[in-house]
Amino acid sequence: MEKLKNKLSVIQQKVLRFRQQQFTFITALERTRERAQQRTKPISSTAQVQCCLDEYCQNATDRRVLSLFLEIVHDLSGLLQQIESQFTAASNQQIEGLEECKRLLNPNNDLSRLRARYPHDEVNRLSCDEARNYYGGVVSFIPIILDHLQQGLLAAERLQKTAKPVGEGGNEVTSEKPDAVAPVSTPRSRSGRVLKKTTGTQSLLHCNLHKPNGHSELWHGGKPAWRPPGRTNKF
């Protein structure tokens, strides 16, 4: 699980760098869409961004920022696959956000209606026309995926504490039963009689009751010792 968290942290650093280049990213999409004569259509999928890079990108700066976007998408898809590989198919259905991530990461999935909400501000950094008609979905795509994956990692971490580990072939590994604890032997005397455990007070009472010359009142059952009538001289 720590390995997955570290990979998510690396992706977040790339996303932070990409956010700083959002204006460059929009400009690159504008130029490539103009060459493709698609300025009236919104950017609706990651496959469309890939097409802009492969067929219509002629600028090194544009190529670099579009490649960074697609690299982040690839890393997010790889992280999703690693999370799924940690658990069985039944367990993956219990992890919140994974199914939504799989749907969104489909290269042909329509992103045009996606909108990242607060605290994300990617949409707010666009003009009203750009946000509403062209780029609101594509700039919201990565923040939404990140939110789902973070929730998925938290749910997977909770599930890992109760679920069995997955071995090769996707089978759950059953843990061996612990060895039976040997019963504690009962102390016996030399004659074979079972000795009972006694507390300190019980031992003292037992000794006083069976002490032939003891002067404790316990020897007389709580009554004073018998004396002959009359005056007894002390020597």
UniProtKB/TrEMBL annotation:
GO cellular component, as recorded: acrosomal vesicle; ciliary base; sperm flagellum
Give the residue ranges for region: Disordered: 165-199, 216-235
Q: Do you know which Pfam families this protein is assigned to?
A: SPACA9
UniProt name for this protein: SACA9 protein
Q: Which organism is it from?
A: Polypterus senegalus
Lineage of the source organism? Eukaryota, Metazoa, Chordata, Craniata, Vertebrata
Q: Give the gene name.
A: Spaca9
